[in-house]
Amino acid sequence: MRLNRYLARAGVASRRKSDDLILAGSVRVNGKVVDLPGSGVYPGRDRVQVDGREVGLPDSFQYVLLNKRVGTLVTRSDDRSRTTVFDGVDNLRPATVAVGRLDRDTTGVLLLTDDGEIAHRLMHPSFEVEKLYEAVVVGMPDEAELERLRRGVRLEDGLTAPARVRLLKRGGRRPGAIRLEIGLHEGRKRQVRQMCAAVGHPVKSLERVVFAGLTTDGLALGEYRQLAPDEVSGLLSLTGIERR
């Protein structure tokens, strides 16, 4: 494991600040100063100290499910002091990050974790993890336009993969609104918004309602909770990870 990741998971500092500690000569591995940020360490075998204090990894990973609200950025910090999804979430470890991104005005399911293996697999295209969205759009798409979304829409970065698309009945949380349900395995930047705009129906509001089988049922916007053990087991199974 890279030393900066080890320090972040141990709760010492973020990876970037851990690099600063390493460069400053504050970190020792097996009694020797290590000042190269790219250095590696073997958890459970190597002894790691920061300013003379021994540090170790937590016994378990952190998994937090957040119902993202409008106007929040999916980033650990913002140089313009805008609100991020991490603001107001208590007791997050420095190594805990968001799995994938939602744009500032998209709401819904967002997973925060320091389990790098699960995070990587959930985001990797080869695992085809489905993300389900509900989009309120301008105008009423006809069947031909819905079929274009299903087959794939050509965007600036190429043709999108086939998607599950259906027109939802009017009503629900937005009475009178035209709502589409869109299921994707891809994760391109602002993909749903770009797809809908490409067929002539720009998105007015967007919510991710399911990610990797997780939903925000019971969570108000901005609220969060820890994943239950069976939910973690489900993610491990989905990504093909076997752990004792």
Report on this model:
This protein has helices at 3-9, 15-23, 116-123, 143-151, 191-198, 229-238, and strands at 27-29, 32-33, 48-50, 53-55, 63-68, 97-98, 106-113, 131-137, 154-155, 158-159, 164-168, 178-184, 203-211, 224-226. The chain is elongated, with a radius of gyration of 21 Å. The protein contains six helices and 14 strands. Helix 1 packs across helix 2 (15-23). It is an alpha+beta fold and 244 residues long.
Summarize the structure.
The protein is of the alpha+beta class. It has three domains: 3-55, Structural Genomics Hypothetical 15.5 Kd Protein In mrcA-pckA Intergenic Region, Chain A (Roll), CATH 3.10.290.10; 63-125 and 214-238, Pseudouridine synthase I, catalytic domain, N-terminal subdomain (Alpha-Beta Plaits), CATH 3.30.70; 130-211, Alpha-L RNA-binding motif (Alpha-Beta Plaits, 2-Layer Sandwich). It has six helices and 14 strands.
Features:
single chain, 244 residues, alpha+beta, Structural Genomics Hypothetical 15.5 Kd Protein In mrcA-pckA Intergenic Region, Chain A, Alpha-Beta Plaits, 3 domains, 8-stranded mixed beta sheet, 4-stranded antiparallel beta sheet, 6 helices, 21% helix, elongated
